[in-house]
Amino acid sequence: MSSDAMAIQTAEAADRPWLETLHEWVTTVDHKRLGILYVLYALFFLVVAGIEATIIRIQLMRPHNDFVSPQVFNRMFTMHGTTMIFFVVMPVLFGFANYLVPLVIGARDMAFPRLNAFSFWLTAFGGILLYFSFVGGFGLYGAGNAPDTGWWAYAPLTSRAFSPGHSTDYWTIALLVSGFGSIGTSINIIATILCMRCPGMKLSRMPLLAWLYLTMAGLVILSISPLTAAQMMLSIDRYLGAHFFDTQAGGSAALWMHFFWIFGHPEVYVLVIPAFAFVSEIIPVFSRKPIFGYPVMVGATLCIGFVSMSVWAHHMYTIGMSSYSNSFFVFTTMVIAVPTGIKIFNWLGTMWGGKIRFETPMLFCIGFLFQFLIAGLTGIMLGAAPFNWQLSGSYFVIAHFHYVIVGGILFALFAAFYYWFPKVTGRMLNDSLGKLHFWLFLIGFHMTFDVMHIPGILGMPRRIYTYESGRGWDTLNLIITIGTFIQGIAVLVFVANLIFSYFKGPRAGNDPWDAWTLEWSINSPPPEYNFASIPTVASRRPLWDLKHPEDPDSRYD
Amino acid sequence: MSAITNPIARTTAAWSLPNRGKVGMACLIFAESAIFTIFVVAYLFYAGKSLAGPTPREVLETPIFFTICLLSSSLTIHLASRSLERGKRGAFLGLWFLTIVLGGLFMYGTAHEWHRLIYEHGLTISTNLFGTTYYSLVGLHAFHVTAGLLMLSIVLLLGLAGRVGREQSVRVDVLSMYWHFVDAVWVVVFTVVYVLGR
Fold first, then answer.
1. A544: domain CATH number?
2. pTM value?
3. Has residue B30 got a pLDDT over 70?
4. 127-186 in A: which are within 8 Å (CB) of B?
5. How many CA atoms lie within 13 A of A74 on its CB side?
6. CA dist B46 to A255, A362, A416, B50, B63, Å?
7. Is the pLDDT of residue A401 over 50?
8. pLDDT tens for residues A138-148?
9. CB of B12 less than 8 A from some CB of A
10. Does the residue A5 lie in any domain?
11. Domains along chain B?
């Protein structure tokens, strides 16, 4: 019955003129379509920012390389960082939130569908503005095109004297506009989770995905807003001649650092908490066990969210704060390792004694577990002020946060792609290509980012466009660059898999993984209204209850 | 297939969830509070650090009357939404209009003060750190009052057209949450600018 309905739908879609289909996608307020738009938008910018990373790495492949000029190099690392954070990872996470949150809580759409579309288009417009700077950034001075101040844009580098032209303004306004979009989506996520749950879906019965996205959205609201305020101040400085960050008039460059990192550090948790969410959904299904320690997981997440608001200045040990400030931020940074450790133990506890199925999503989750652990350990090293004084601003820091973002977040994201692709498209991703993608990416990742720690310890500073030979960095940098190319090939395999499987993949059916949350109870892809009748749930695993009426979870709830 | 009904434990208890408009507005207020917090921190951080005059002590006058206007508009909007809940549409429209008038008076006060500071004392946003932080903090608040006044006016026009009835009272409540927030922010801004900052 359902496949007939689907066949009719596809037939209709095929008959429609493309302009009408395009119009439908542009004007859509459906959470699933907006989710897909977010993800496609992010994948496009992933390729763009990946190319920028490759340019950086080719330049650093050998000493005294002149692949790009120093000016272009500065633009590349600025655009790479800004794009990856604001126009790849944020949108892709919001895309997954849009698609999944209403489905896992049994709702037909987000709380505010039109706000949802508005937020997406704001984010999209922000990305376009940022890249328009390549064309429009010349301004009247003919100086500079793309932003080249680094992704954190420290004062006074952003002042008119040092950044003439419009490149910094494009950067500021792009972040301001996409920030409004992020705040809008986060308001939507919170309102959806609190107000749209299906009957019986108490807070204590929500899938962890919903809990983690609730925390993430709260963090976005409290952390993107300070960035928005700081960007407003920067704009006022640049356009109205104010003196917020103008040291000539008594302003303070350190204040910008504080404002930026009050956003910047919670942002790391904004990015990693959804990664935790994917892992918390995928590991139980592929270990055939419910998540270990659900209430503790929720508590640890909220604790991370809370403590992450008070660790920002561990990015600033080298600016010379008082010893009391240093001690405070070292302490809070160490404290945040505790709930994070609890999470890692709970994922291991979920796997322990389980009947583990090593399919592609699970492989990426296992990669995530170990790599995120290592990233956390180097994080603790850098969180200690004396160690930080030695290595701040070196490639050790770059290696550390790429370990978090690539080894942790990106691996979890790939797991989520392999896990939910069947639900979104109705087709399975090819498993052989998936495993090839996993192993290639794993090898490339470790070649690049394991090795990158060493030149950092040997004293190679970040953001240099070239270096002298004979400092022991040469071979290491070559290995790092080769690893980058292997990762690039792996991503191409992934994109090829997405395209190939979308057309040719085997039909997935409603529930290919034998999972337990509500999204797997409906057709793949889900109909526009999601649930023909709103479900009622009685436990954390409604599909388990349905499949095992003789021993439902609700008996123990 | 798509419906999940559990044979064992049916939820018979009434299922009530918070109103999404109110939750959404509460979230927006949190976000706005964070933005204001940063501006307030900047104001306090730079208080007394201007390298040149004029200083707040020399030029600022405490706007007591206009503060009373803005704060009492919180009361009138509250009474207006109560009236709407009880179905008294005439009282609602009258009190709503009064709220707009009080908000408008406050904006007049701000405009007057800025005019005086600019033309009599030569204080602009680029004069010194005081000008920078003062105009941006007070201006950010004035922007929020203006946005609020626009929204209140739209509701007034709809009300005059007879489109606002008891069934809209929850939505009107959501808007009045925003207005209360704008008033509460003024208490902070007033304390920081006119009491602590001088």
1. 1.20.210.10
2. 0.94
3. yes
4. 183, 186
5. 16
6. 10, 52, 47, 7, 22
7. yes
8. 655 555 678 88
9. no
10. no
11. 20-196 (1.20.120.80)
